[in-house]
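Chain A, query sequence.
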Amino acid sequence: MRRGLRFGIFIFLFLYGGRKVGAQMLPEAFTGDPELRCAAVSISVKRVSDGAEVYAFRPETALIPASLLKTLTTAVALHEYGPDFTYVTTLSHTGEIRGGVLYGDILIRAGGDPTIDSKYFPKSSFIAKATEAVAGKGITRVKGNILVLEKELPRVPYTWIWEDISNYYGALAFPFNYKDNTYHIYLKSGKAGSRTDILSVNPGIPGVTFRNEVRASARGGDNACIVGGPFAEILLMEGSIPA
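Chain A, predicted structure.
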């Protein structure tokens, strides 16, 4: 799915032989580009050791921080919790076990862990560990439910745009996060101008209906997006993908 046209540009001044390379040419490199004639340009380079500003171009200009803000939230997390902090997700049950059958519920108490079966942490398989723990208790069947206990659900910031909310980079962080809180929709396209078909949704999203208005296009690139919030029961898919 396409991203919004917002870019954070980072300029690094590399030192070669003790001299700065191209510092005076930085403003011209942006303001002289016809494709960036309407862009807001602001550059501020500070020395880490003492905070002294070594280069600046319109440093007072206010710009949208975009993904740069992640460095601040990461710094706060490290300051508050330390580098050795570990998320804890606990597994328990109600009822009693008789003959390998649990007459009760499996309870998962969520602790905010973002790595549960995440593609970025392939060795961190909560499902495999939970299954092993349940089997270790001699449970072969459950006559009850598997319940995820969450204290509080997050809210979508009201300033987010529609295109961001239902795309992978706009996934919310929940007390219980599974597979990066992301699902993949696989589409099949035909001739340019025709409507696409949904081949599959992985993992499946129970209770959610997709209204597919995505068309095949003669031009390249993924220009489709989903409109709808994280708790919506009907999501609209529109835009285009290559024929």
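The longest helix spans residues 70-81. DSSP finds four helices and 16 strands in the chain.
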